[in-house]
Design a protein that fits this description.
globular, single chain, 11 helices, 246 residues, eight-stranded parallel beta barrel
Amino acid sequence: MRLGVNIDHVATVRNARGSAYPDPVRAAKLAEKAGADGITAHLREDRRHIMDEDIDRLIAELEVPLNFEMAATEEMQTIALRHKPHAVCIVPEKREEKTTEGGLDVAGDDNRLARFVAPLVEVGSRVSMFIDADARQVEASKRIGAAVVELHTGAYCDLHYEGRFQDRDAELKRLTEMAAYAHSLGLEVHAGHGLTYDTVTPIAALPEVMELNIGHFLMGEAMFVGLEASIAEMRRLMTAARTVDA
């Protein structure tokens, strides 16, 4: 299982003071050194954290793949086609939201998204759709030509921390079923959003999930233990979740 480290919130701290530090590209290089299999960065329309120059530098300096998160807009498509990142993850985006609040409605916008995705596939980027655990969204992602689905784990994590364990377990069941269903359709399955040390194990244990993308928690934990240590512990938990006793 691969671990993608999202460095958006290093840029959030930088932008809070309008300074040149902390540098998200430095964080990406540290994550790379610590064993991250890829780096995720979300260039939002409002540039609230990652900036265009950050993407330029990540493309130039990273040795591991870049997963470029973006909304399905003409501006973002142009940027992605210029850089040709290893992976492009299409996410919903609302200017007023604090963070991504749910999955993309691929089924409700499949014609436009099919046209949007095609040029990205043509230049060699692996396209992922960030979706909720819903069969219609999985099927639509396959239909429009995406290679990957990333299942939104935010609801599962929120329910865990709210103490709503019955609802959490029902959401985990949906994630489990949709990971298996997406895999059966030939889609590669990723997962992410809101994952912590407390919530990662059941998701990492799903055999169809090939990659987890985690950022906010790792950057917060790094304030106390350092980035390399926070990544190392997450990877330890992921590995343990996939280990079957002889």
